[in-house]
Specification:
By secondary structure, this protein is an all-alpha fold. Helices cover 46% and strands 1% of the residues. It has helices at residues 3-16, 21-27, 51-64, 71-79, 106-119, 123-135, 153-165, 181-187, 214-224, 251-265, 285-297, 305-314, 316-322, 324-337, 349-354, 366-369, 389-401, 404-409; strands spanning 87-88, 104-105. The longest helix has 15 residues, at 251-265. This is Terpene cyclase/mutase family protein.
Length: 416
C-alpha cells in the first residue's frame, strides 16, 4: 500500500461511512486474504481497496520496460470495468453487473485508462472510461476520489494523466462551469509568499486554507505539466527554478513551483518523510519515488540524483513488503530519471515485479528467468504483505479522531 492509495481508501471510508473499515483494513495487513485471488491479479494482499490500482500500475510498468503482460492479467483489468465506463477499486464478481452500490472512483478509473491505453487494443474501454470521467468532473474543473466529492490534487492529477494518455487535451476538458483541470490545480497551489509556498495542498480545509502536502505536490506537478504516471525528463522552467507567481499563475508555473518545493523538502536532498501521524520521522518511500518522477518531468534532473540513489540503496525491503505497485513506482522513478530498472541498487525491479503475478507473455529478461506465460504463471511474491504497521496505526487514528486530517495529508503507503 502506498501514500496515494491509502488516502484513497480513507476517502472511500469517508464517503461510504463504514464504521468497521479500520478493523477490515487491519486484517488486510496479513500476508494473504482469506478468499482465493483471481489468477490474473498481481499481488497477494487483499485487493478490496487497491486491486485495480495495483494491477494498472503493474501492467503500465511492464509496458514501460518492454514487457508484454500475461493475457489473463490484462483481461482481468479490462473485465473490472462497469458498463458505464467507471472502475471500482475491486469487484470480486466481475460477472455481476455494477449497480448504485458499486463504489466506482476516479483514481481506479484513471489508472486503468493509463494502463489500457499504453497496452493498446482497448480503445472502446478507454473511450468509455474517459466519458465516465468527464461525466463526474466537478464545477471547479477537478475531480474528487468519489463522484460528487470535493476536488483534490491527487485525483485531479491522475485524471489529467488519463486524459493525456487517451489522446485528450486536458485544457479542453471543461466542466459545465467552464473550468478545466488546470484551473482546479492552480486553485490548489499555495502562493509563494505563504507557509509552504509553491506546494500543492490535497484539499482546502474547512476554512479554505491550503496546507502543503508533498504527495499532493508530486501529483500536482505531473498534472500541471499534463503528464501521467509514466514520464521522461522534461524541459526546465524558462524563468528559473524558484517559486514565482506574479501575474496570472498558469498550471505549468504552478508545477514548476511545486517541483521547487519538493527539491527543497527532500531531507538532505535524499528522501521525503511520512506525513502520517505517529510516523513523522519515518522515510516515505512511495512519496520519494513519486517526487523523483515529478522532478524529472519538471526538468530538474539534477535534483533526482540523490533521491534516486537513496531509493536504490534503501527501498528493497519496503518494495518487498508492499508489492507490485511499489515495484511499479520504483520502475517509474528509474525510467523518468534515466536509470536502469533492471540494475537498481543491485536489484532487478522488472524481474521482481514480474514475480508478483502471472508470468508475462514476453520480456526482455526471459533469457535470465526462463519463464513464460505457461511457466509458474501463478507465482506470487510472498513479500506482498500489505500496508504495514504505520498504515494500521493511521487507520486506527481515523477511527479515533476522524478522517479529515489524514485525508488532507494524503498520507503514507501505497496501494489503497
Amino acid at each position: 500500500m502506498n501514500v496515494r492509495r491509502s488516502a484513497a481508501v480513507l476517502a472511500a471510508i469517508a464517503v461510504i461511512g463504514t464504521a468497521t473499515a479500520p478493523a477490515a483494513l487491519a486484517d488486510d495487513a496479513s500476508p494473504s486474504p482469506s478468499v482465493a485471488l483471481p489468477s490474473g491479479l498481481y499481488g497477494t494482499s487483499d485487493p478490496t481497496y487497491d486491486g485495480v490500482w495495483r494491477q494498472s500500475l503493474a501492467l503500465l510498468a511492464q509496458d514501460t520496460v518492454g514487457v508484454k503482460p500475461a493475457t489473463k492479467a490484462v483481461d482481468w483489468l479490462a473485465g473490472q470495468q462497469c458498463a458505464d465506463g467507471g472502475f471500482a477499486a475491486y469487484r470480486a464478481d466481475a460477472d455481476k453487473a455494477c449497480d448504485a452500490k458499486t463504489a466506482v472512483d476516479s483514481n481506479s478509473t484513471a489508472a486503468a485508462v493509463q494502463a489500457l491505453a499504453a497496452l493498446g487494443g482497448h480503445d472502446k474501454q478507454v473511450g468509455k472510461a474517459v466519458t465516465w470521467l468527464k461525466s463526474v468532473q466537478n464545477e471547479d474543473g477537478g475531480w474528487g476520489y468519489a463522484p460528487g466529492g470535493a476536488s483534490d490534487t491527487n485525483s485531479t492529477g491522475v485524471v489529467v494523466g488519463a486524459l493525456a494518455a487517451a489522446g485528450e487535451k486536458p485544457a479542453d476538458v471543461k466542466s459545465k462551469g467552464g473550468k478545466s483541470p488546470y484551473d482546479a490545480l492552480v486553485r490548489l497551489s499555495i502562493p509563494c509568499d505563504e507557509d509552504g509556498g509553491g506546494a500543492f495542498a490535497y484539499q482546502p480545509d474547512k476554512k479554505g486554507k491550503l496546507a502543503a502536502n508533498a504527495d499532493a505536490t508530486a501529483a500536482g506537478v505531473l498534472g500541471g505539466l499534463g503528464q501521467g504516471l509514466v514520464t521522461t525528463a522534461g524541459k526546465a522552467q524558462e524563468d528559473g527554478d524558484g517559486c514565482g507567481d506574479s501575474g496570472t499563475l498558469t498550471a505549468g508555473r504552478a508545477a514548476g513551483n511545486g517541483a521547487t518545493y519538493l527539491a527543497e523538502t527532500l531531507t538532505d536532498g535524499s528522501y521525503l518523510k511520512s506525513a502520517l501521524a505517529g510516523a513523522e520521522d519515518q522515510p516515505d518511500y512511495a512519496n520519494t519515488a513519486d517526487a523523483v518522477v515529478a522532478l524529472a518531468a519538471a526538468g530538474r534532473t539534477t535534483d533526482t540524483e540523490k533521491p534516486l540513489a537513496w531509493l536504490a540503496k534503501n527501498s528493497a525491503d519496503w518494495a518487498a513488503q508492499s508489492g507490485p505497485a511499489a515495484y511499479a513506482q520504483l520502475v517509474f522513478a528509474a525510467h523518468a530519471a534515466g536509470a536502469d530498472p533492471r540494475a537498481f541498487g543491485g536489484h532487478d525491479l522488472v524481474q521482481q515485479l514480474n514475480a508478483t503475478g502471472p508470468a508475462p507473455r514476453a520480456t526482455d529478461d526471459t533469457s535470465k528467468t526462463g519463464k513464460t506465460d505457461n511457466a509458474a504463471e501463478d507465482e506470487k511474491k510472498d513479500g506482498d504483505s500489505g500496508p504495514g504497521v504505520w498504515w494500521i496505526i493511521g487507520v486506527g487514528l481515523v477511527a479515533g479522531i476522524g478522517i479529515g486530517f489524514l485525508l488532507s495529508g494524503r498520507n503514507k503507503k501505497q496501494q489503497l
